[in-house]
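User: Fold this; tokens only.

Assistant: Input:
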Amino acid sequence: MTRARLGALAAVLVSMIVLPAVAALAQEGDRRALVVEVPQASLEELMNVPEVQALARSGGAGLLVPQLGRRNLVYGQSLPDEVGGSMILRIGLPDLGRWLDRLVPTSGGDEQLIIVAGVDPRSPAMRADKDGLFGIVMASGEPDLLPAEGPPGSLTSDSTHRKGVVTDLDVAPTVLDFLDIGYDVVGSPIEIIPGPPPFELHERYLAQRRMYVPIGTAGAIYLAIAGLGAIAMLALGSRIPRDVRRIFGWACLSVAALATSLLAAGHLLDLTYATVVPFVALVTVFGTLAFAPLEHRDVLLIPAGIGIAVLAYFAVEAILAWTATLTPFVGGSELDGGRFYGLPNAFIGLLIGASLWIAQRLRTLAGFGLLVAVALFAGLPYLGANLGGAVSLFAAAGLWLAIRERELLGVWKGIGVVVAVTVLGNAVILAAHAISPFETHVSRFEERATGLAGVLERIGDRFQVGFDLIAWNPFALIPVIGLPIAIAAVLRPPAALRPSLRRSPAWRDAILVTLLAGAVAYLANDSGPAAAGFAFGLGLGGLLGVSLLSEAGKMGEP
């Protein structure tokens, strides 16, 4: 049968079956909802259809993050097969405009909700661009919903807290809320907000998708060369010129600046190799060497200064609503659906290491207070909103107190301190999320993990994500294997590391706690290898870097 005959047959079927059904919906009550699934449709492909543009002028258009897979947009969440007053259709992109003209009435007094959304499979153009986002357009109200003039709007939901971004989990709650039907499903109703549609955000996302793997890989290779080179420098000792050893020492300490630059690059106005690569290189070099004048006073002031700069940057990032996390160059974009706002898992280790690089210059209780403050920052709603980050940092605070005061507390009291600080601190975080009107990943975890069995199931799911990450990227094994090796090197240091660790017990303890907290981060987060990665980097980088630089500079206990 030819394509033309197939199209004609489809037209007859729609005219005989679909259009009467839509008309029947309008007679059932004063509200009706129509959801049109469009396979292989990105935002731009949807908005190229004039009828969809008109619909966006009545409502808004946005990016749809797929989390349901191939399941039906409305009936895939433990809902009955039919919801009165609603209909869901699947129409191909070439025929979409023609059928919207027929399906969307332009007269009458009934309120209607029209949602047009892209669904799997992705189009060839989307696969070529590594585009994981579909388009969605929504309008509601009384006819006419296809006006000829006016600016298009945008969409959002409480699931994302991002302008222009919703998830396919939000479609069912939107339909049920519009029809005034009670529901208990994951997701939040979609809201129409003033535009424009997020074309620019989508363009930045596609640029990040093209570049983040090569740039992140280049950063990882640089750090591997720095780390392995530093180990060789320490092993060879005086047989290597002092200036060469110092270069590798500074390279090891640059891990914090490099990690920060890979996040901060998400703020660049233009995301191209010509802008991102020089930015990352300059921030890494000058963000580290800016603290070189401190070397002649005390080498340990260098990591402390770097740590202060890193924490200051994270405070600014929170004020800016974590917008750089939409297009970072290490870890995934928050538009990929794992986390839409707050502290990304990939940067938990950076916060751990930076905080302990500062704590080693403070009195024990002051360092403990700093770590508790950073843990609250990581976990509280409106700030980091990351439960795994809070667990990791509260554990770091307890470990710092227990290890620094080990002679006073002993082993068992020290373990009790770690457990108490971690449990009490996270009880505060959970309570804050429970009473906060700001819906977060943590509050959804609290709602869905009912009882001990529910908690254990969620923990199992999180471990599976970490295993999948390692299977997808074997390089994620590096921090997993490296953490216990580095911990052993601190507890029983080889001869080349002993001088710097003996000169400053506080620095030794800071490195040890960084690595131990990295192990906690691996256990406490679904993307465990990513959460532990920078803790391993700052722990090992600090250990090697200070050991190399302390040969020429002053170093002492504060």
